[in-house]
Specification:
The protein is 73% helix and 0% strand. With 208 residues, it is mainly alpha-helical. α2 (11-38) runs antiparallel to α5 and α5 (87-112) packs across α11 (188-206).
Length: 208
Amino acid sequence: MGLAQLLFKDPALFLIIAIPLLYSVIAHEIAHGWVAYLFGDNTARRLGRLSLNPLKHLDPVGTLALFLVGFGWAKPVPIVYSNLRNFRIGLICVSLAGCLTNIAIATVAIFLLQFPGPASNQLAGATLFILAKINIMLGALNLIPIPPLDGSRILLGILPQQAQIALVRLEPYGMILLFGLLFTGLLNPVIISVQNIITLSIKAALGI
């Protein structure tokens, strides 16, 4: 069910899902921009993209897709990768930043669910559960090494030059490939496996 249908069917549930989803995606993008700034590229900061204001981040097509099919995206923060100090390490850190931010948010949400207050309050419990689930899903999806997802840029920072060139050549077709794999369900086992690894790692870290 797309969020547009949910808005009319259950407005309260719509807000419980839409607000955490929106800010989880924004936090993901801001993390990329901040780490890029730490590595020497101030493009995102200069353009005002290190902001929690949703209007700075909403992508018209990505927002429409989110409402219609339940899968969307924000405008990527602008990063000039050639400005990064220590290019390979900078590229890996910048690319990992968004996924690690989502995993950190999920960890905090799961941690808070262990306390009687949030766990016993229906609204707080539902919000934290959805926040954890959304962020685990975002972290897992973005770790897949298909352009333009973060996993492909992490891979670029690791691969030798010839393999980098081959991966960059794939980028113009990446979105078509990604959507094809998502809508046929072929990518689902991979995403679920990564989600399970993240979930188990969080629970192990929290001693749950």
